[in-house]
Amino acid sequence: MRLVSLLPALAAAAVVVAGQGLTPTDNPRYVTVAIARPSGNGIRGAVRFTRLADGSGLQLDVQAEGLEGGVQYPYHIHVNPVPASGDCMATGGHLDPDRAKALAGGAYRCDPAQTWTCEAGDLAGIYGNLTADGSGSSKFKTSYRSTVLSFDGRVSVLGHSIVIHAPNNTRLACANIVGYKKADHKM
Ligand SMILES: [Cu+2]
């Protein structure tokens, strides 16, 4: 019987991301890093979440390329995963366990200085939009720390998705946030 109970674990361990040596896991206890790689409409992004050693939250490293110069692209954590069809519309609304949007009564405006006014998943609202660095570059890169987000409990990013929007809120690119067992230093 013990052998049978081990089989799912062995099957999961066999699924290793090519070239990265990372093992996906759904168990938050083992997750040290989680990555989403949204792509679509000529945009390729990566959002990496790393558990901070002091337990205060997550480090986020964000990259994107294929951005049009001077354009502001909002991006968020959306509640639902991306289905196999790849339809970004199926990811639903933003991760908002404290119902910041509902409490704002239709006048939602995220004030980064008062993060309780922001949906937990409103990364663009709290930390700024994706926007090309300028001087002809289509790339963007930033890093920041979140004391709100976690791999555990109600503010966990696991099982959710990242969506990159056009300025008119159209959904351009999306991907699931996948947790991994071992920290990786590549984006
Ligand atoms: Cu969004």
UniProtKB/TrEMBL annotation:
GO terms for molecular function: metal ion binding. Pfam families: Sod_Cu (PF00080). The keyword Signal applies. One of its GO terms (biological process) is superoxide metabolic process. This is Superoxide dismutase copper/zinc binding domain-containing protein. Residues 1-19 form the signal peptide. The keyword Signal applies. Keywords: Signal. Coiled coil: none annotated. Residues 44-169 form the Superoxide dismutase copper/zinc binding domain. InterPro entries: Cu-only_SOD (IPR053257), SOD-like_Cu/Zn_dom_sf (IPR036423), SOD_Cu_Zn_dom (IPR001424).
